[in-house]
Write a structure and sequence with these properties.
Strand order of the largest sheet: 10-9-6-7-8-11
Order of helices and strands: EEEHHEHEHEEEHHHHHEHEHE
Structural class: alpha/beta
CATH topology of the largest domain: Nucleotidyltransferase, domain 5
Number of domains: 2
Number of helices: 11
Shape: globular
């Protein structure tokens, strides 16, 4: 079974072809990805209308590229999958429209996929795929959740963010420091030369007694600290931090970035370890864009090794949005019987599609003060 996956939820256009045989883990045959980062940098963030128009330009050439790389043609495809949500409405409509039009023209079934489930299952395409059951940390720009995963479609939320996600904390902190867009990778690069203990920043909900997250307070603390440093080095009061990257000495800026990264990573690390202890599982999966953060990976590797647990990540090129994870999620859903593809080509998208429809909610009181 060949599954074509189309991802267009935000600022990456991704197309991929995955092959599934029996119950074996699907194999990635080919993929192509176009990032819109260069286009959106001038605006300091994603412009939805521009994103949608660029998806229209890119999706069919990328599809042709994938088919050529896999030595396949459109007629070889068995199922066409697309991101149904969540994401930007206009961007989602591009991928959904193209997928359903292709399905109708070819007489092939189509399947709408939850974007976050794609991230959740993406480590199965890696060189070291996990086995069920496991604890998953889904950590991206818009979502931070801990889940118990017993199989495809068998998800139980253990904890989630009550405000900003970890990726938002990275991006917004970077913007406060004037590090540009995309903020998370920029902050991580600057942090490499800094002292992570230079500035005392809060670790929200670290000792909350549950597995929930909160990063809004950290963002506020970074704002306050940045303003103080800018005022001190500029020799006058500052009304805001946009000039931080120009005013602060490189070492001061690096240490501020490193201290911010350390706060985020410590919360993610300790909550993840607490989830492993609570469930009694010894396998942790990290999924989502923040999973590419090297300091997070380094600390998780070391901590899980001390605890005798295994940790799995997507390949670095699969951490960001991509078509491979959409094709994979569709293939695994079809394999497990969780869902069937359809030849009904009328479509809709779900820009605010939560994981509620896919998960069971679990809300215990869990001690997380252990390190």
């Amino acid at each position: 079974m060949l599954v074509l996956g189309i991802e267009s939820s935000c600022d990456e256009t991704g197309v991929a072809l995955v092959e599934a045989q029996g119950t074996a883990v699907p194999v990635l045959r080919a993929q192509a990805l176009h990032s819109q980062i260069g286009m959106h940098q001038a605006y300091g963030g994603v412009v939805p209308e521009l994103a949608s128009r660029d998806h229209i330009r890119r999706v069919l050439p990328l599809t042709q590229q994938v088919l050529e790389e896999a030595s396949s043609v459109l007629a070889d495809i068995d199922v066409i999958a697309y991101t149904r949500g969540p994401g930007l409405a206009g961007a989602l409509l591009v991928g959904a429209g193209v997928a359903c039009a292709l399905g109708a023209a070819l007489g092939k079934p189509v399947l709408g996929v939850h974007h976050l489930e794609g991230h959740l299952l993406s480590p199965f395409l890696g060189a070291d795929p996990p086995q069920f059951p496991f604890v998953a940390l889904l950590v991206s720009g818009g979502h931070t959740q801990l889940m118990r995963v017993d199989g495809v479609g068998q998800y139980e939320v253990l904890g989630e963010t009550i405000d900003d996600a970890a990726g938002e904390a990275f991006d917004k902190s970077a913007k406060l420091m004037g590090l540009g867009y995309p903020g998370g990778p920029a902050l991580a690069r600057v942090a490499q030369d800094g002292d992570p203990a230079a500035y005392k920043l809060p670790r929200p909900l670290l000792h909350s007694g549950n597995l929930d997250f909160s990063f809004a307070g950290l963002k506020t603390a970074v704002l306050v600290q940045t303003r103080k440093l800018v005022a001190a080095h500029a020799g006058e009061a500052s009304s805001g931090p946009p000039a931080a990257v120009d005013v602060l000495p490189p070492q001061v800026l690096a240490s501020l970035a490193a201290s911010t990264q350390a706060a985020i990573v410590e919360v993610l690390l300790k909550k993840s370890l607490a989830a492993l202890r609570h469930t009694g599982l010894q396998r942790l999966v990290i999924a989502g864009g923040v999973g590419a953060n090297r300091e997070l990976r380094r600390q998780l590797d070391a901590a899980c090794a001390r605890q005798g647990a295994r940790v799995h990540y997507p390949e670095l090129h699969l951490c960001t949005d991509n078509g491979a994870m959409i094709a994979l999620a569709a293939a695994m859903r079809l394999q497990s019987g969780q869902q069937e593809a359809t030849r009904v080509y009328a479509f809709d998208v779900k820009p605010r599609w939560g994981l509620d429809s896919l998960v069971r909610k679990f809300d215990p009181t869990i001690a997380t003060t252990e390190t």
